[in-house]
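We emphasize that the prediction below concerns an isolated chain of 368 residues; any contacts that depend on oligomerization or on bound cofactors are therefore not represented. The input was used exactly as deposited, without trimming of termini.
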Amino acid sequence: MYSLIDGEDKECLNEGPHRGNRMKLTSEKLPPNPFSLSQYDDQQQKFFQWKQEMPDYRRHSNLVDRALQFLKERIKNGDAMAYFLRGQLYFEEGWYEEALAQFEEIQENDHQAIYQLGVMYYDGLGTEPNAEKGVIYMKKILDSPCPQTVHLKFAAAYNLGRAYFEGKGVKRSDAEAERLWLYAADNGNPKASVKAQSILGLFYSMQEPKQLEKAFFWHSEACGNGNLESQGALGLMYFYGQGIRQDTEAALQCLREAAERGNVYAQGTLVEYYYKMKFFTKCVAFSKRIADYDEVHDIPMIAHVTDCLPEFISKGMAMAAFYYARCLQLGLGISKDEATAKHYYSKACRLNPTLADELHKLLICQRI
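Result of the prediction step, given as a token string:
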């Protein structure tokens, strides 16, 4: 059996961005504010649904203009909340410089603005990245005695844990990251940081020695609270008997449900399963679609929509591209096409060099 991965691609296998690097995490999105809606009557509450209620005959830009005009009127009438909502609208539209300016203006009187400033400075949204400043803002939330910061504390603790895990803005400390994430996870409380619950599952599965029972526990808690990343992770743990007795039926149920909800790594894992079970027609149809996701949306956009980590999205797409290339190379479930196979091998390598290398070696050893 020969390889279509050429010298240039083999070189990229040894220089992959994932090799030797820590898992790259993302910030916790702003939690819903339980204090805000109670301050608005029915007419004002409808404003919060303006995105969902977008009629077909209205262009998105027109609705944004209408929303901004609405907020301008509320600000004129002395509505303090409208200042933040305008900044949040800028943020959601990707107008980060305008959002940053609005949040800076009101930070003395708005804890949600402080939270968003922490995210923006840490991630470099609308400004140069400044992790130290981001950490300061998150600590303000976590240390605040104000009752109106309660809904923000778990998310702030998750973000601070991320800073300690990554060693940005603070000295790196896995112990401190773990402590903050355990606080943020709050024993699986669905109103706490579900993202922290999921990250704890990943964290314990990465530790040496691995703590797979703890990993399974936290992925179960997060999955029960709706986390898509953990639903896929549970499928893998059931599949390989990690932290739990092996159960292929439970594994496939978790993976299929996660895949239907948009978990790209779960989708890639199913592609691998179909290939190894010799369901080649199904493998081809599924893998081609997944491998070409980046032709419609980039990975950061998929991560934003699904709240899954970009690293695992790229792995799922790399798996799909690799097995689609394999089917094209060997004529399994599709006519042989070595030129297209080489293209998808190269794509798998670009998406995740280390994973592509491991899959290639595995299939050669197993002669699959």
